[in-house]
Amino acid sequence: MLEPDGTPGSRDRLTLLYVIYNARLVRHLRARLGSRWPTAEDIAQDTWVMVAARLAECRVTDDYAFTWITELTRSATLAHMRGTRRETTVDFTAFEAHLMLPPAPAAEDEALANTVVLAMLDQEPTELEAAA
Questions:
Q1: What dihedral do alpha carbons 83, 24, 64, 6 form, nearest 10°?
Q2: How far apart are CA 50 and CA 78, in angstroms?
Q3: How far lies 91's CA from each of 41, 57, 88, 99, in Å?
Q4: What's residue 122's pLDDT?
Q5: Which residues contact 81 (CB under 8 A, 6 or more apart)?
Q6: Contact assessment for residue 16 and residue 50, using Cβ atoms and an 8 Å cutoff
Q7: According to the model, what pLDDT value does residue 2 have?
Q8: Residue pLDDT tens, the chain, 132 long
């Protein structure tokens, strides 16, 4: 869709910038984030939301827009890191140890127990057992 002055509309321009620069932006973020690189796509998404909101402020051509986008990326990264700083991790391994089942008895022990029970069932009850 073209604007009245013949330039592409903001939606078309956002789509074009996304197609051109998203993969590069994610690589840029992964290189900058070090061990936290799995969050690169989350920050890239936040960046594109900021780009969409501020696209009217972008006064450079599409060929040079990556510099402007990386400036917005800094803000998105800081906001993301501020939000994740409050998150705490909980280690459930100690709790999980209490939930573990005891080891299964050996097959020989099971067979012996079954034999004893069957032998007890074959016996006549004693006077005490019969009185109970």
A1: -90
A2: 13
A3: 26, 46, 10, 14
A4: 77
A5: none
A6: no
A7: 39
A8: 334 444 446 788 889 899 999 999 999 999 988 877 778 999 999 999 999 998 888 877 878 889 899 999 998 988 888 876 665 666 666 666 667 777 788 888 888 888 888 887 777 766 766 665
pLDDT at residue number 50:
92
Structure tokens at 20: 């051109």
Residue 88 CA to residue 43 CA, distance in Å, equals 19
What is the chain written as a DSSP string? -B-TTSSBPHHHHHHHHHHHHHHHHHHHHHHHHGGGGGGHHHHHHHHHHHHHHHGGG--S-GGGHHHHHHHHHHHHHHHHHHHHHT------HHHHHHHPPPPPPPHHHHHHHHHHHHHHHHSPPPHHHHH-
Is this prediction's pTM over 0.70?
no
Q: What type of residue is 77?
A: T
Token representation of residue 98: 């209490």
